[in-house]
Write a structure and sequence with these properties.
alpha/beta, Rossmann fold, 4 domains, 24 helices, 19% strand
């Protein structure tokens, strides 16, 4: 066969031209598919002009179901003016508002307004936590996508956003008249489309949790310019837990001052706006309001109380509202309705002299006025909550002055490594606090007079985080046990912790001596897992070195642990006793007494020989657990017995405090005595002679007729 003939040159050229044309047609179809087409005209030019000039007009006009739902209060209007002034001129502005005042809505709408009008090119919004920040960015995205009023008057932004159809992957290919819009739509950041003539071109809005890494926050634009935030919005930047923790307060203030306020660099004055509520005295917001570097305003819900505050409101009205049978369904609503009718009949007298910040703030279905609304909040929530949540002036709780504070403990960390026993301590004990999500544990060393030292502490499973709340635990017992039933997962976790604690050898700081834990107590208070704990202890190979325990709240009205006569074989110690439950030996102890003893040791100066100390390192979370409770001194007038009764501060975790208290009880059980930890003396027993016994027996026989 001969060689195939080559195609004529003109056929080759035609084929190449067709290939190029096909490629161009494909590219054109792609361009047409990604191009947003013509942008609709502005529907209401006058409204848009007013909205660009006034933040308040923008908020009320384009967000009628949130910001403009009710007429605004004078304080809302002043707050809107402060926001606009910050956007135009920079500076630091903070406003503390009552709960339910629309702080988050204002923050989100303000971020949108600054971006759409070009007031600021990079808006960074910070919330208390990453979950709250995620909610804010999602809310802003929803408004840009779904708000028809915005779409009509700001189409150069909303039209390209809607063209994405909720698919962020389309951002990279989106064009307008053949040019890329450079729009971005990520989990925490929005970059508005670049449209010729648009004031919003390339504006950035990002949302983050305050505790996330914010140092050096920046964004590189398509033209290569490194953009830095020029407006920061702080939206409710603390939680109930963080506001009650001195360590967390200090940490958040440091982040604000060292990181957040330095985000803008030196080229332009950074605008900072904070909308928040004071939660506790000296919390983050309370301190920023007092800082002369901030323009701060406290907005009170009630500016002046009614002239009939004491008799009609806190007397008759309160009694009617709170008088109902808790066992009868719906009886509370009946009491509320009767209270409202009493107010209706006496409204003129009850309203006289009362002045509230927002007259439109009340439930139209159940209340007649804002005055009634705020009095209901005062009556239902109590004066302490009302003072902080509504008045921005938390009440100092004098009953908590004897509580341990984190500041009392910082100097108690000594230069002894973790898992090393300090000089002067020879007895080791431990405690495990059982929770559904994880196990908290602590190991303590004890010396003369119950001088205590924390050798080590932690959780199982290990969370590998420096600070977390129980509700934030992600690595749970069940997860560690591959989703086994809770009882099995807890049994497995207790096995791991007991093995780690009881099989370990501990080196002494000043000698070659090796120590082991003498006694490990395991919390068996939780009814759901008490049987698991007892069964684990009964089957444990560690024998009497491991026992279940029950902490008992022994108040001033109850008898002490030593009042009841022990059963044969049981022991009574310093406000603890042994007992047998379902054939398993237990330790019962008085939590109030032992918390008071440990708190007293922790409040001693670090140089005191009986002071409680901690191994080397940072202990912020541990210190917050220790400072999570406060005592109230209570006296039983009939017996004269006085007790410091300990209560948990709402929203706090106290699990490692329980571990240290339980370890101290274990030390007493193991034989360590201490000044202040002696068992109450039992009443002396009367000695009966043989003659008296014989006489009693004879009298009894006579009574029986024998």
């Amino acid at each position: 066969m001969g060689r195939p003939k080559s195609a004529p040159e003109h056929q080759v050229a035609a084929a190449e031209r067709k290939r190029v044309q096909d490629i161009e047609r494909t590219r054109e179809r792609t361009r047409r598919g990604a191009d947003i087409g013509e942008i609709p005209p502005v529907q209401n030019p006058d409204s848009r002009r007013q909205a660009e000039a006034s933040f308040e007009f923008f908020a009320v006009t384009y967000f009628p179901h949130s910001t403009g739902q009710w007429p605004m209060s004078p304080d809302h209007q002043r707050g809107n003016t402060r926001c606009q002034d910050a956007a135009d001129n920079g500076g630091r502005s903070i406003e503390a508002l009552p709960r339910g005042s629309g702080k988050t809505t204002r923050s989100e709408v303000f971020a949108i307004w600054c971006g759409l009008t070009g007031r600021r090119s990079f808006v960074a919004v910070f919330g208390s936590e990453s979950t709250k920040a995620q909610m804010s960015i999602d809310s802003i995205k929803m408004e840009l996508t779904e708000n028809d009023l915005l779409y009509e008057d700001f189409p150069e932004v909303c039209h390209p956003v809607r063209a994405l159809e909720g698919k962020p992957q389309r951002c990279s290919g989106q064009t307008y008249n053949g040019e890329s819009t450079h729009i971005e739509w990520t989990a925490d950041t929005i970059v508005l489309p670049k449209i010729p003539g648009s004031k919003a071109s390339g504006a950035i809005v990002s949302c983050h949790g305050l505790m996330a890494s914010s140092r050096g926050l920046r964004y590189k634009r398509a033209d290569g310019v490194q953009a830095r935030p020029d407006l920061v919005i702080l939206d409710d930047i603390q939680t109930d837990e963080s506001a009650a923790s001195a360590v967390q307060i200090a940490k958040r203030l440091a982040i604000i001052k060292k990181n957040i306020l330095k985000l803008g660099g030196h080229g332009k004055t950074l605008a900072v706006v904070c909308n928040a509520t004071v939660i506790a005295r000296d919390d983050v917001i309370d301190q920023l309001l007092a800082d002369p570097a901030w323009q701060g305003v406290r907005v009170k819900a009630v500016l002046a109380w009614s002239k009939r505050h004491d008799d009609l409101w806190m007397g008759d009205y309160k009694r009617i509202r709170q008088t109902y049978d808790k066992e009868i369904d719906g009886d509370q609503l009946r009491a509320w309705r009767e209270a409202t009718e009493f107010y209706r009949a006496n409204q003129a007298a009850m309203d006289e002299g009362c002045e509230v910040y927002w007259e439109h703030c009340y439930d139209r279905d159940q209340e007649l006025s804002a005055v009634q609304h705020f009095y209901n909040a005062l009556i239902d929530d109590g004066p302490e909550v009302f003072a902080s949540e509504y008045q921005q002036e938390p009440i100092a709780d004098e009953s908590r002055t004897d509580a341990v504070r984190p500041a009392d403990l910082v100097s108690h960390a000594i230069n002894v490594p973790r898992f090393v026993v300090p000089a002067g301590c020879s007895t080791l004990t431990a405690f495990v606090d059982v929770q559904e999500a994880c196990l908290y544990w602590a190991i303590c060393a004890w010396g003369s007079q119950l001088r205590g030292h924390v050798v080590a502490y932690g959780t199982y499973p290990d969370q590998h985080r420096g600070y977390f709340a129980l509700r934030e635990v992600e690595k749970t017992l069940r997860l560690a046990a591959r989703n086994a039933p809770l009882a099995d997962a807890m049994h497995m976790g207790l096995e791991e912790v007991a093995r780690e604690i009881l099989d370990r050898e501990f080196q002494s700081e000043d000698s070659d001596a090796v120590h082991r834990v003498a006694l490990l107590l395991v919390d068996a208070n939780w009814a759901q897992t008490a049987d698991v704990t007892r069964d684990f202890a009964r089957r444990s190979t560690h024998g009497t070195r491991l026992l279940p325990s029950h902490g008992r709240y022994v108040g001033a009205s109850r008898r002490t642990m030593s009042d009841a006569k022990p059963e044969p074989g049981e022991r009574v110690g310093a406000h603890w006793r042994t007992s047998t439950i379902k054939k398993q030996r237990h330790i019962l102890f008085d939590t109030n007494y032992w918390k008071s003893l440990i708190a007293g040791r922790m409040k001693l100066g670090s140089a005191d020989p009986m002071a409680f100390t901690f191994h080397a390192g940072k202990h912020e979370m541990l210190f917050d657990h220790i400072a999570s409770e406060y005592p109230t001194r209570t006296e039983n007038k009939s017996t004269g017995r006085t007790v410091d009764e300990w209560q948990l501060i709402p929203g706090r975790d106290n699990h490692w405090l329980d571990c240290l208290v339980g370890s101290a009880v274990a030390a007493s059980v193991a034989g360590v005595s201490a000044v202040g930890a002696e068992a109450p003396k039992a009443p002396p027993r009367k000695i009966i002679t043989r003659e008296e016994m014989a006489a009693r027996r004879a009298a009894l026989l006579d009574k029986m007729g024998r």
